[in-house]
Design brief:
By secondary structure, the chain is of the alpha/beta class. 39% of the residues lie in helices and 25% in strands. It binds adenosine-5'-diphosphate and magnesium ion. The site of magnesium ion has 2 residues, from helix 1. Its main location: membrane.
Length: 243
């Protein structure tokens, strides 16, 4: 069974229809890239996938849970689906370690020594073992974003969603964050990422989805999709690399 199923999802904000019947299915360990112009509905689709937005119709199922259940089902879903945004929003008054331990302690009621052990483990995964006791403002933007990824991983998610996580970073900091994501992909994490990094999508994503005007306009294996776009819209997008 696929880890993520999205079936004919419609989502409107008032009179504005943002998702117009989106369907996709992501197998375990697959990496999907979502590309498309600003306003095409990429972030909304991700937010629907972890229950941050309520869909108007259609079906979403992740890691075996259907969305749209009660509050308890939603909490369970949120522990299975990690989401990382462009802004990392670490708590400035907590150390890196404390930031990472917070959600497992509060949401999953994990005992402190265990939470600390998990925090050390996920920090190592993102290459920041030595920053456990540092405060966020002592870190670069790229390091803070890696902490945000580690914080999400501490919940032991089955699926990770990334929404333009490198868009606010300088090129050299972008690279270190992309490397962490690439390692996660290699380790078999199921991931869906919205990105402007076309080279990264092409190299790391098994499938790429081009969204346009609230629809999946074109999709396919990343190599094929970028090399041989079938629609004028994707051809234009790839050529101009428009954001
Ligand atoms: N909470 C919201 N309320 C009203 N409109 C929204 C909201 N979130 C997104 N939109 C609108 O939905 C459309 C798609 O936005 P979004 O999903 O953020 O696109 P993308 O991530 O592809 O840039 C845009 O027109 C945006 O203004
Ligand atoms: Mg967006």
């Amino acid at each position: 069974m696929p880890e993520v199923v999205v079936e004919n999802v419609h989502k409107s904000f008032g009179a504005l229809e943002v998702l117009k019947g989106v369907s996709l299915s992501v197998g375990r360990g697959e990496v999907f890239a979502l590309i498309g112009r600003s306003g095409s509905g990429k972030s909304t689709l991700l937010r629907c996938m972890n229950g941050l937005e309520k869909i108007n119709s259609g079906r979403i199922e992740i890691a075996g849970h259907a969305l749209g259940g009660d509050a308890k089902a939603l909490r369970k879903l949120r522990t299975d689906v990690g989401i990382v945004f462009q802004s990392y929003n670490l708590f400035p008054h907590l150390t890196v370690g404390e930031n990472i331990m917070l959600a497992p302690r509060i949401v999953k009621d994990v005992a402190k020594p265990k939470a600390r052990e998990v925090a050390r483990e996920v920090l190592q995964l993102v290459g920041l073992s030595e920053k456990f006791d540092s405060y966020p403002d002592q870190l670069s933007g790229g390091q803070q974003q890696r902490v945000a990824i580690a914080r999400s991983l501490a919940m032991r998610p089955k699926v990770m969603l990334f929404d333009e996580v490198t868009s606010a970073l300088d090129p050299e900091l972008t690279e270190e964050v992309l490397m962490v994501m690439e390692q996660l992909a290699r380790d078999g994490m199921t991931m869906i990422l919205v990105t402007h990094e076309m080279g990264f999508a092409r190299r790391v994503a098994t499938q790429t989805i081009f969204m346009h005007k609230g629809k999946i306009w074109e999709r396919g294996p990343s190599a094929t999709l970028f090399a041989d776009p079938q629609t004028p819209e994707l051809r234009q997008f790839v050529k101009s690399d428009v954001k």
